[in-house]
Description:
The chain is of the alpha/beta class. Helices cover 45% and strands 12% of the residues.
Amino acid sequence: MVTYTLAFDIYGTLIDTSGVLDSLKKMIGKSAGIFMNTWRNKQLEYAFRRGLMDAYVDFSVCTKEALDYTCHDLDITLTQDQKLSLLQEYKTLPVFPDVSKGLELLQNTNHSMYAFSNGSYQAIKALLDNANIEQFFDGIVSVEDVKMFKPSPLVYQHFNTKTNSTKDTSWLISSNPFDAIGATSYGMKSIWVQRLPTSVFDPWGIHPTETITTITQLKDLLEKYE
């Protein structure tokens, strides 16, 4: 039986970044949806750009700067207290409903399980604690150690070094196509979690090893490769 090292992306994969939507609706009404999506997209863009510039900052800085950008871009005024409230809420985002059960199923396997994120160690630990899922993981691997963001190959290599694993026995599990493509290009196996039927995988000709729609499908899927 093959034992794998599983790298679970956090934001958007296990933790629901749309958890701020209700608060945004109360603050700005009907513009909440486009505000939330713009904020998330700009957050990722800022991380990519800083990676290319070799200008690393904590991921929370990208989140804050993206929030400021979104207010300017959509011409929406939020008070300082409202911004601070949203940023605080980002530290306690909810878990997707399938996650706890899916991780629990994997506990009975021999696979190692790690949280693997662009976020800092402390931010990810707080999210996992708040969601009551930290006990499922063997550890947390953050990009802050190498001061680079996904999808740089340096980050996936760091994951293997940190977990004493090899790329050919590692799986990246992520809802973010850029992450799955990055891991696949590096040499890992990858599983794309298609959280919405309307989600589109980037048409680069680089495909995930597998695609699932819920974390509860993982255990049976991995058994095919054991």
